[in-house]
Amino acid sequence: MEKRSRAFAAAVALAAATAAVVWWTAPHGLQGAEDPHPGAGPQAGSARQNPSGSARPMESSFFAARRAAGPDRHEDPLLVHGLRDTLEALLMEAQDGGAADPATLKQRLAGLVGKHFPAALATRALALAERYVDYRVALGQLRTPPDPTDPGALREALEARHKVRQQFFDGPEHDALFAREADLDRYTLARLEIERNPRLTAEQRTQALRDAENELPQARRAERAAATEHLSAAAQTAAFNAQNTDERTRHAARSAQYGEAAAHAMAQLDREEQSWQQRLDQYSQARAQPGDGRALESLRQQLFSPQEQQRLDAALALRKLPPATPGS
Prior knowledge:
Helix content: 55-70%
Structural class: mainly alpha
Number of strands: 0
Low-confidence stretches: 1-29, 31-54, 68-73
Number of helices: 14
């Protein structure tokens, strides 16, 4: 359940990234810590990994012309697509024992890096992971934009984040870790600036939005289209749930729109979500009753997997929030 739900949520999050840019969260235990490299200059990260200075630096501005990656470019086996996900998974596992300060977290990384990277890359991967920890600490110290939908504030925030990344990563590292996200961030800002520009006519705005999307690399456009489809599917599911639509009607609508295989997968997600909500109901009712705390803990262990227990408290807290109103 967890893997499929996370995959579905990740696709929805990718679509949402085209409407608002959010990157200010840091792993538990890293926010509020002091910057381990105060005053580090733009090339500090490159110097730490590449003392010879042979690595290609990052552009000085987030909005500099993007480099064209040649098809015959030699691929570093460490700096590949998915590197950031691997580092995040490594950090998450290192924090399973509870929140930790950066120094403690790095000690844990040393014992776990071999589970996430081949032995031949472990030394380099550990050094990169340690700098990634430092980066997340520094990122947590940036001021969150008061209104992330304001184009001026967003532009300043993107530049500020870029400067932080310059402190810890060189050009190839940045491309492997952040290039895909950066493409979407630039597109998001372009959309905001176009939509907030009162001097554009409707026709000019439509053309400008089309031009902005065409600026995205083909792969990003395909990803965005796929994610938008997932977002549409999520909205459809929410409507089905609100109307108590039966399984047969759901399957017919989904298979016609998304295909038979997707319809079956979405039906499985429906069943898993229903099971999750039913177990939340059972646990909430037990918590509301006076009784032995040990019995409640036993029920918690019985109803939820270790992975589900990590999001249990957040799910219960979310239930207490008032329902969202249209336009909120």
